[in-house]
Structures are given as structure tokens and as C-alpha cells.
Known about the structure:
By secondary structure, this protein is of the alpha/beta class. The chain has helices at about 1-30, 50-60, 80-85, 100-115, 145, 155-160, 160-175, 195-200, 220-235, 250-260, 260-275, 290-295, 310-320, 330-350, 350-355; strands at about 65-70, 90-95, 120-125, 205, 240-245, 280-285, 325, 360. The chain is about 50% helix and about 10% strand. A six-stranded mixed beta sheet has the order 2-1-3-5-6-7, sandwiched between helices. Strands 4-8 form a two-stranded parallel sheet. Strand 1, helix 3 (about 80-85) and strand 2 form a beta-alpha-beta unit. The protein is elongated and about 95 Å long.
Amino acid sequence: MDQNSNSKKFIKRLLTIILVVAVLVGGIVYVFDPFYHYHKPWLGLKAVLNDKEYQCIGTLRNFDYDTLIVGSSVVENNDNDWYDEAYGGKSIKAVRSYGATADLCYMLDVAYEGHDIKRVFYNIDPSSLAMTAETTYESTGCPIYLYDKNPFNDVRYLYNKDVLLEKIPYEIASSFIGDYDESFSYNWAKWKSFNSDMALGLYHRAKDITPMMEETVYQKNLEDNIALLTSKVEAHPETEFIFFYPVYSMLWWDGIVRSGERDAYIYNELQMTKALLQYDNVRVFCFQAQEEVATNLEIYMDTLHFAPEINKLMLDEMIAGENEMTLENYEEVIGGVRDFSDKVVNEYIVPYEEKGLLNYAEE
């Protein structure tokens, strides 16, 4: 009898301990919440943002803001304060490495669920217009338990060893030790080198030139992406949408000429720009043909990723109204981009060929 009683007491105590530990661990994760799944920072902690797949969706739901900086990895090196100081308000980033239209539009939808958005700065990567208009979060292994609103699968977050032993200590250390700047959210530039050796080393040039594809080769995907993006613009006339095509390096242009995609990409940009400019709440800028930037490989780390100074340059030019496209000039401006790409392959890349500075992809 005593033995049975002791066994029951032991099991009861064990279950109580397990319950207490579970509540304690889950409570710690909830309070510190390094992915901002439940709330914005508490306890004087900073918003330590360095893992966009895990943190971006939570910040869009729970942070205070009225301005979005939207795009791929090329916008991550923006300082949010640049935008706040220039336009007023409070900005955060909605970023996705691939910059796919569907992914970015999904983030826009999440932002609009609980916020009034004054401005959206949206980086259009040429490749995004050729992608399918379907989100890629699940297919690329993103933590869907943070994206959906199912509280039951939150156990994967609340009882996560890495979150408890790595993410929370890092959040605390970054908040109270050192000089972490919240406006540098998702910034990766300080860990990278920008110079011609890096850019050339990461460019693997195709040995053969593929015949130029038909310009409408991506027509179906393009139409779907246009419909998706313009639907967001149309649904939110109260928001000013500022779209821009970023300045990739001349190596990128050489690459898409050799792959035969240049004409299709130019066509896609023409069609997307024309569609966007139909709306009064839209402005569109094009920085692609800035030769002094695109030909200076000392400010690139690969064919398309540039140093933060170029992010600032593009913003300054948007503020000044430079390189802006209208319904009257967009064809001429994008035609100038095509001319620049011809100049790249006929002039700018030639010295690099002659000096043997280009690496060629293995077949």
C-alpha cells in the first residue's frame, strides 16, 4: 500500500515538475520572443533583426510603422533612418532573398492587416517578373509555424532549443552589450567585402552565347505578376507606392546577354512599368543604366549586390526626383537600359576579356 502511494506521489511530483518546466520554458520564449511572433520587444530589449525568414513576418504583424521598404537582399543594407529622416514616419523592412512578386505581395497583405501604410518603397528585381506568381515560403523551407495563425504548432517555437539557448542570449547581448543599431535591420554588408576581385571571382561567365530568346518567353508569368502587383496598388489608393529598378553591375548585364534573356527582361520591365504608371499613387524610378555605378566593380561583391552607399545614392536620387519614369518617357528610359547593356558587351567587358580576368563556367 505504502509502495503504491509513494509511486503515485512520485509520478505526481514528476508531472508537476514537467509542467512547471514546460510553463517556464514557454514563458521565457514568449516574454523574450526573439522572432517577434507575439509582440514587439519588451523589457528594454532592442529589435535585433538578423534572420528575415524567421523574424520579418512577426515584425510586420506586431511592430509600429507606417512605411515599408520592400524587396530582395539588395535592399537589406538600407538604413531605415534614411527613409524616416527624409519622409517622416517610421519604416521597417519587408524582405525576401528571392524577391519574388508573390512573396513580397504576401508580406504587403500581412502589413495591411493591422497598419495604415503611408508609403511603400518597392525594389523590383528583373528576375522577379519572370518567376511564377506563387509564394515560395513552403517550397524553400521557411518556418511556416511562424507564418500561419495556428497556435498549436507554436510548440515548435516555444520549445525550441536553439531559440532558448542561442537566439534569446544573442538578443539580450545585442541589446545591452555593444552598439547594435536597430535601423540596420537584416544588414549584411559589414560581413562582406566589396571590390572587383570579389565581383569577378563570383561571376562565372558562360562560354557560349545563347541566341536571344523571344521577348515574350515569360509572358504568362509576367501577366500574373503584373496582375498581382497592380492589385495591391489598386486596393490601397491611400498609399504612395515608389517602385524602383536597382543598379546591377555590368557583369550581370553581360551574363543575361550571353544567356539570351536580355530582350525578355527588357520587355518585362516595359510592360510592368506601363501597368504601374496607370495609377495616380505610383512613382517608378530606374537606376539600371547608371554607367558610373554599374561599371565600377569596386562597389560590388558579386554581379548584382552592391555596397550600402549605392542604396543611399538611389534613395537620394528618388528624393530629388532623378531617374523617374513617366508614361511619356518610360520607353525611352528603358530603351537606354538596353543601349547600356549593348555597350557593356561591346565596350566595357572587352578589357576584362583581353586581360583574362573573367572566369568561365564549366560545361
